[in-house]
Amino acid sequence: MGVWQLLMVGGVMLLGLLGVIVPGVPGPWLVWAAVLWWALHVQTGLAWLLLVGATAVLLLDQVVVWLLPARRLRGVGITRRMGAYAGLGAVVGFFLVPVVGAVPGFIGGIYGTERIRLGGHGPAKAATRTVMRAAGTSVLVELMGCLLVVGAWAGAVVAGA
Question: What span is annotated as the signal peptide, if there is one (predicted)?
Fold first, then answer.
């Protein structure tokens, strides 16, 4: 697979990660489709193993999201800026402290946005807790599943599969 095709697959995965944060965009499906496209073109044992693993992780991810309480976005104060900062924090945290860094990065992005908006630690902490209860947990679970798949794909590409 050429460099341009790898960049295209990575771009679709990036759109999938952004799609997790934007309501109504099928982020996990975009990530899975990118892994499928890559595996069909590379056709190595590692590629097929990664496709099977990605399928399992994203299906389990969907089951967990389905079992969590429904998202209650109205009246909580979730803004696009908050979603952008939370998503950016999760991605940066995922790569700075591999895998587990996404959780504090996500929550830190929400807290930072609320701290700027509300001005103090106490109100920002309470607002962060409210946002995480309303929708943050399900978004975080979905984002973590997609980040795991993207990280595994990036590792496989670096390994030369």
Answer: none
